[in-house]
Amino acid sequence: MNQNNYYAGLLTTALRWVTGWTYFSAFWRRLVLENKLNPEEAGYIGEKFNHFLPNALGIKPMIEYLVSHPEALWWAMAIFTIVEGIVGLFFILGLFTRANSIAVMSLALGILLGSGWLGTTCLDEWQIGILGIASGFTVFLSGGGYYSMDHYLSRSNRRFSGSRLCQWLGSGPLGLKEATVKKTALSGAILIFALSLFTNQYFHGGVYGKLHNLSVRPHVTITEPELDKGSLSFTVFRDEGADVYGSFLIGLQLKDKEGKVVFKQDQQQLSMLKPEQVSNSYVAKVKPGKHSLVLPLGAKARLKFSDPVLQQLQGVYTLTLTDISGLSWEQTVATLPVQ
Asked: Residues near 35 by Cβ (< 8 Å), separated by ≥ 6?
């Protein structure tokens, strides 16, 4: 084994072990310590994946398709979990190190683009994603080093272990000129650093301008409001706030142009909504809680209210939703013209 390559892999051992564990531990938590692949139990990984949806970068259509199709989502989460387990374990062992470093970079990029905007106190998911990409690239260049299965196989003098293909998939010299290695290392570092700056700015405004954290305060978008034939319906989408904490709606008011409340629902009424009043779009579901209507992050649902007083309304009104935190969101709603 080339001495420079030998020492490079040796010095990145801790990085390889820790990075490998971050991926293998995902498999360990979901299938060994707990069963997080059961859609019927709390903590289902599919709901966590749904949390990525509101502000994902580039892969939002793919996430939306999966969370809208529960069966496809389950298969995707099962496959993803198994892949994380295999890649993480092989990375720790240093088996086919370079091939798995590419897999680590791919997994980390998915995390970065999907959930890089999440993190209530720190830029948690962004840090995990960007550091995973940098770690994967570094270990790709260094290989597994002395404390790796690749090294053991290379010492076994088997014919395959000394092949060029094995070195590119596993460890050992890449067979490139020194100038080429330097250019590859510098180009990769520049690209990853540029990705770091771009995503940090895109998700958090961390490079220039005003810092922002979309995980701190809940936000609900109200769309497609309709007031027709004695019923009020509209779509709510929880697109900001902490992923581990819901938005708790405790009030709904419909006001006329003079500010008079013509229809309202208090927190007790919202906590007692019937299933037919809530039509969910994704696996993260809007549902009545003990004292409020709970909107998990990424949840989208059509809400419908019927009341005799709504039949008498004509004109333009203001719909206001109030969260337990004191935040409120408004949308204009007009009665449909009489046919």
From this structure: 41
Which pLDDT belongs to residue 174? 81
Answer yes or no: is pLDDT of 162 > 80: no
Residue 97: in which H helix or E strand, if any? Answer: helix 97-115
Pair (14, 126) in one structural domain: yes
What residue type is 307 in one-letter code?
Answer: D
Residue 330 has pLDDT above 90, yes or no: yes
Q: Are 231 and 304 in contact (CB under 8 A)?
A: yes
User: Is the distance from CB of 138 to CB of 12 less than 8 angstroms?
Assistant: yes
Domain C-terminal end among 149, 177, 204: 204
Helix, strand, coil % over all residues of the chain, rounded to 5 = 50, 20, 30
Beta strands 293-295; 287-288: pairing state: antiparallel
Q: Which ranges constitute the DSSP H helices of 30-69?
A: 45-51, 60-68
| Residues 159-181, mean pLDDT to the nearest whole number | 78
Tell me how far apart the alpha carbons of residues 257 and 264 are, in angstroms, rounded to a whole number. Answer: 16
Q: What's the start-to-end Cα distance of the chain, in Å? A: 83
Using 50, 70 and 90 to split pLDDT, how confident is the model at 7?
confident
Domain count, the chain: 2
Tell me, yes or no, whether 284 lies in a domain.
Answer: yes
Q: Which tokens is 312 given?
A: 């008498």
